[in-house]
Amino acid sequence: MATEQPTGANARGHTPVRVAATGDVHCARERTKEVEAALADVSDRADMLLLAGDLTTHGEPDEAAALAAICHRLEIPVFAVLGNHDCHAGRPTEVIGRLEQGGIRVLGGDSATIKVAGQSVGIAGTKGFVGGFAGSSHLSDFGEPALRELYRLAGCEVEALDGALREIALCQIRIVLLHYSPTGDTLVGEPPGIWTFLGTDRLAAPIVEHEPDLVVHGHAHVGSFEGAVAGVPVYNVSIPVMRRGYHTFELSAQERTAATLR
Ligand SMILES: [Fe+2]
Ligand SMILES: [Fe+2]
Questions:
Q1: Closest ligand, as measured to the CA of 127
Q2: What's the CA-to-centroid distance between 219 and ligand 1, angstroms?
Q3: Which domains occur in the chain, in start order?
Q4: Is the model's pTM score more than 0.70?
Q5: Are 83 and 22 in contact (CB under 8 A)?
Q6: Are the C-beta atoms of residues 183 and 228 closer than 8 Å to each other?
Q7: What are residue 50's DSSP bridge partners?
Q8: pLDDT tens for each residue of 41-83
Q9: Reduced to 3 states, what is the DSSP secondary structure of residue 214?
């Protein structure tokens, strides 16, 4: 799964789709050259680019515009979800607007479908949210209204991911794009005391149900690259974790009909 080397057509005659993914680019005007360099050759090495949130440093629209200008020059489609940093200035709608002006498709609890070499690729994207993991500090739907509101909002993200995965159920390749992690696997390296704020295993439920081909997320800057949810590969593509600008995954098409769904 985690490969950088393109290969030939698979047994069904499909050429693998090359999916580049990165997260936590934290763009800002003063970081433009650094981000540009990180993505310099991505159009040659991938069929699409996924941005797993924390696109900006402080969620300012001009930071989003700087990233949009870089992505506008790429020759492949770009898909993104927001991260917590992109919400910090309280201007997420303007941030999304600037990103979309650069041709970036921003997913927020919905999906996109494209054709790559005749193969349908579906991307289900949402930011995700906090909540923690079984065996550590799991937030529950109990007590003060503020804490219960966090629990409710995380539940909205889970429902949105489930709905987005249903939308792309018949795509030959299905990808989940998140900012927060659905598993503790890719948080190993982070202090256990902050795992509650790095994701939640509640996001794993729709992944278990729909079995996408690939899940990528960011946010955990000192976590681990590779993990899984019930056999579904999950990768933390945060730049500080990967120590490179992006990683390219190769995915092969699966034939799906309504009868094969569950
Ligand atoms: Fe980040
Ligand atoms: Fe983040």
A1: 2
A2: 4
A3: 17-256 (3.60.21.10)
A4: yes
A5: no
A6: yes
A7: 21, 79
A8: 999 999 999 999 999 999 999 999 999 999 999 999 999 999 9
A9: strand
